[in-house]
Amino acid sequence: MEEKFRSWMVRAEGKQEATATNYSRAINNLSDHYSRFTVYPTDIYSVNLEQLAQIKNSYESNGRFSEVGNHSHGLN
């Protein structure tokens, strides 16, 4: 799924390969972080939209993990 996401970013969004790679790495890092700090092993690439919304809210500016979400100029 990661490769599909990266390809989609390049093809559909017009992102550079390096940018797409950085975003896909960020998703992996967030999956690892979320898994470590919750009781749920999580692969963000495979969650449903409801779970994704909950995870996203956790990394927003007022969320539980906002300090991680703001890292690297909001890349996460």
Could you please describe the fold and organization of this structure?
The mean pLDDT is 89. The protein has helices at residues 2-13, 17-37, 49-59, 66-69, 71-74. It is mainly alpha-helical and 76 residues long. It has five helices and no strands.
Quaternary status: single chain
**Share of residues in strands:** under 5%
In the residues, how many domains can be counted?
A: 1
Helical content stands at 55-70%
| Computed structural class | mainly alpha
Return Rg in Å. 13 Å
User: What is the residue-mean pLDDT, rounded to a whole number?
Assistant: 89
Question: How many helices in DSSP terms?
Answer: 5
Biggest sheet details: none
Count of DSSP strands: 0
- SSE arrangement, N to C: HHHHH
Give the N-to-C terminal Cα separation: 18 Å
Shape: globular
Low-pLDDT regions = none
Detail the topology: elements first, then pairings.
Blueprint (H helix, E strand, L loop, with lengths): L1 H12 L3 H21 L11 H11 L6 H4 L1 H4 L2
